[in-house]
Amino acid sequence: MINIKSADWLAKREESWKQFIQPRLVYLDEPRFTPKQLKRIKEYYLTGDTPCPEEWDKYSEPDPVPFILRLWLHPDDSIDNWRTIRDSVLNEDTHKSYVEIIVNETSLFLFQSAGNMLATDIQYDAENGFFMGKEGELAKFYINEVGETDRIECNGSSFDKGLELLFIRFHSGALGWLKNTVNLNKVSRFLVDEWIVSFGRRDEFFYVVEQEARRAENYNKVSIKERLLEFFYTVSHYQESSDISLPHYLAVLHYCSNHTSARIEFVDEVNNALDNQPIPDYVKHWWDIAKTSDSIDEALERAEPTLTILIPPEPVREKTLKEKLLEKRMQGKKKRRGRLV
Questions:
Q1: Which end of the chain is flanked by fewer CB atoms within 10 Å, N or C?
Q2: CA distance 135 to 159
Q3: Are 181 and 253 in contact, with CB atoms under 8 Å apart?
Q4: Residue 192 pLDDT > 80, yes or no?
Q5: Cβ pair 158, 213 in contact under 8 A
Q6: 152: phi > 0 → left, psi -120 to 50 → alpha, else beta; which?
Q7: Residues 202, 303, 232, 238: what is their CA dihedral angle, to the nearest 10 degrees?
Q8: How many angstroms separate the CA atoms of 138 and 58, rounded?
Q9: In which domain, by residue range, is 49 found?
Q10: What does pTM read for this prediction?
Q11: Do 293 and 199 lie in a common domain?
Q12: pLDDT tens-digit map of 9-55
């Protein structure tokens, strides 16, 4: 049990705040906390004292200690205590505006600003990730134990947790992580199973429409389907990175990166999941193509034809005034003794 009144524990906590926590909060992509807020967050980090509702106006002021930071920075970081914090925040008295704040702040910290700290010029040690090894636990807790998988229901209102966009971009973020040698604890590294399940919420038509839209508007950016195939090809050939025919960055990572073992562990998990877990037929088709292709370009070319015949939904046509009047006239007629009168 933690003795938060121990002088030795407090001294170590103070040093940790100064060396690791405060720099992470100060050097985010943009300034997010005032000196007053930082002081309150530090107090929470040292004592675990929860901000009272009276401390701020939930309608016009930010939470002094955002929900995701309450989980991460509490002296007791056990799952049981996280559930206690969750239940104290999300209850029958929670206003829907505050739930929106929780969703927005969590998405920002966990999956955006904090989740993408890959640059080597960030003014704190980014090697171990923003949450210093707690990324996986925090992400899984938010997905699996804060509301339902995709939504938070509170006082008759329903809030999207913003996870669909995360999983659509999963492979792009993970691909970038495989190409960099910093940030050992990339959030997506811990969400392979959740990513696999998310494929069931989309069909091949989703990717085809997005790809055609980019081509029609002359987008220079790679489509989601193309990036997914690149990711499939990369992870299916990653162990062969000594082969000079593969992208140079793979060989460099294989031999030089201090974090090679973490990346190989991630790649192995992705390979195993795609080989053995249930996935839609079109995803399995693309995965098989990636594994049996000799280059990314070949995989893209082979995956160009769609696996299934895609019939786009019929566009909804607005009825003409004449059609509306005729429909109204027909509805007004009554049937009597076998005749329309």
A1: N
A2: 23
A3: yes
A4: yes
A5: no
A6: beta
A7: 180
A8: 24
A9: 1-161
A10: 0.77
A11: yes
A12: 999 999 999 988 988 888 765 667 888 889 999 999 999 988 776 66
The one-letter amino acid code at 162 reads G
Same domain, 123 and 14: yes
Q: Are residues 138 and 204 in the same domain?
A: no
Q: Which residues contact 298 (CB under 8 A, 6 or more apart)?
A: none
Instruction: Please state, in angstroms and as integers, the Cα–Cα distance from residue 202 to each residue in 43, 134, 270, 305, 314, following that order.
Output: 44, 30, 19, 18, 19
Please check whether residue 124 is in contact with residue 24, taking contact to mean a CB–CB distance below 8 angstroms: yes
What total of structural domains would you count in the chain?
2
Tokens matching residue 77: 């970081």
Q: Which tokens hold the place of 211?
A: 């790809």
- Asked whether the beta carbons of 94 and 155 are under 8 A apart, the reply is yes
In-domain check, residue 244: yes
CB-based contact 105:67 (threshold 8 Å): yes
Among the listed residues 165, 176, 159, the one whose alpha carbon sits nearest the alpha carbon of residue 198? 165
